[in-house]
């Protein structure tokens, strides 16, 4: 299928209007509200309009007559999305303190009667990705499979129930993140607090993600993260998208390619676990296709990190209506993978794991299935 930039942008806006996007809590400088996006005049140069696009099928010449040309085969996809095969990501917004950026594709949801869902596997791997638009996470208290939470920031902006362990994240090396990082880590890890911290969010992607070269990220990790890697506190590498190849905007590798460079350059670094992200396709994919792609991506991540544990800190199928079926198949698989230590479905907001202020059918499947 042939796409031009304006076609892609219109499609992105149309999909966003049909399914209300969850606000992505990549906490600080993130996506503007969809309402704000629609209230403003459309800027066709706004990169937010093209999130989730398969760039291997884009005609950069703008020649609509090329519509019938066969699209080149997409490159394999790792975790965030700096690739010519760009990952599809859900809508995002950051704290209002820093510039906002883009709306993403909607997260696929599906309601289901889960009054008789299974009791889960008891692995305690499941977590909640949340932000300021999430309801009180106490709605998940009855679900004992869910044991931890994070919000892309170094401090929780809400009171978490005692059964959820908060995991601080140093989103990037922007001054506003660095200013509070030491105090927040000290507070979160004090006493019987968290035993985990995570480094930069999707540095393989352009701003408003962390947008860092592997060498710069390695230097920053040594300076800002390594001092806390005491053994009592486990440290996570930067999280990467499921992008593949070279990002056309940054000229840097995406996904696992970026991660491999970082690990090679971060000599002397303590990296206890590796967070990765994955989003499914938006081209009417069957559930089985997304399941296979997800398992392939996670398996490649486990093999790439040389015995370190993998955390899948963002993942979702983006095909509307496939959510429950997708989770029914991947949750038992994730729980059975020794190389996967934790994971968090995207995300605890209305339209995804939450509906009407309570746990949605999709959320019940995730939390108890």
Description:
- The protein has helices at 5-18, 34-39, 175-189, 214-224, 255-265, 287-304, 323-335, 361-368, and strands at 126-129, 146-150, 165-166, 196-198, 234-236, 273-279, 309-316, 340-345, 354-355, 358-359.
- It has 369 residues and is α/β, with parallel strands linked by helices.
- Strands 3-2-1-8-7-6 form a six-stranded parallel beta sheet. Strands 4-5 form a two-stranded parallel ribbon.
- A hairpin with a 2-residue loop joins strand 9 (354-355) and strand 10.
- The longest helix is centred in the C-terminal third of the chain and has 18 residues, at 287-304.
Give the gist of this structure.
This protein has about 375 residues and is α/β, with parallel strands linked by helices. The protein has 8 helices and 10 strands.
């Amino acid at each position: 299928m042939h796409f031009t930039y304006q076609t892609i942008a219109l499609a992105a806006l149309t999909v966003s209007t049909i399914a209300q996007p969850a606000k992505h809590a990549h906490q600080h400088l993130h996506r503007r509200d969809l309402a704000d996006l629609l209230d403003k005049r459309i800027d066709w140069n706004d990169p937010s309009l093209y999130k989730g696009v398969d760039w291997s099928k884009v005609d950069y010449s703008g020649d609509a007559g090329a519509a019938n040309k066969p699209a080149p085969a997409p490159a394999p996809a790792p975790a965030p999305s700096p690739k010519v095969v760009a990952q599809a990501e859900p809508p995002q917004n950051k704290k209002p303190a820093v510039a906002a950026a883009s709306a993403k594709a909607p997260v696929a949801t599906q309601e289901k009667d889960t009054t008789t869902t299974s009791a889960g596997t008891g692995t305690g791997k499941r977590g909640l990705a949340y932000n300021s638009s999430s309801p009180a996470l106490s709605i998940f208290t009855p679900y004992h499979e869910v044991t931890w939470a994070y919000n892309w920031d170094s401090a929780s902006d809400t009171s978490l129930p005692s059964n959820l362990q908060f995991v601080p994240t140093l989103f990037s090396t922007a001054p506003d993140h660095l200013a509070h990082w030491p105090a927040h880590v000290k507070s979160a890890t004090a006493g019987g607090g968290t035993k985990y911290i995570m480094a930069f969010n999707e540095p393989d992607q352009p701003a408003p993600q962390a947008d860092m070269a592997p060498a710069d990220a390695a230097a920053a990790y040594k300076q800002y993260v390594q001092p806390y890697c005491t053994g009592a506190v486990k440290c996570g590498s930067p999280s990467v998208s499921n992008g593949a190849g070279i990002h056309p905007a940054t000229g840097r590798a995406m996904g696992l390619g970026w991660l491999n460079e970082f690990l090679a350059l971060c000599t002397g670094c303590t990296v206890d676990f590796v967070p990765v992200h994955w989003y499914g396709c938006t081209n009417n994919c069957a559930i089985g296709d997304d399941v296979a792609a997800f398992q392939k991506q996670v398996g490649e991540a486990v093999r790439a990190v040389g015995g370190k544990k993998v955390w899948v800190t963002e993942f979702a199928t983006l095909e509307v209506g496939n959510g429950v079926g997708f989770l029914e198949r991947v949750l038992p698989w994730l729980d059975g993978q020794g190389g996967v230590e934790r994971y968090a479905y995207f995300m605890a907001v209305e339209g995804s794991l939450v509906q009407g202020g309570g746990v949605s059918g999709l959320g019940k499947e995730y939390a108890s299935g």
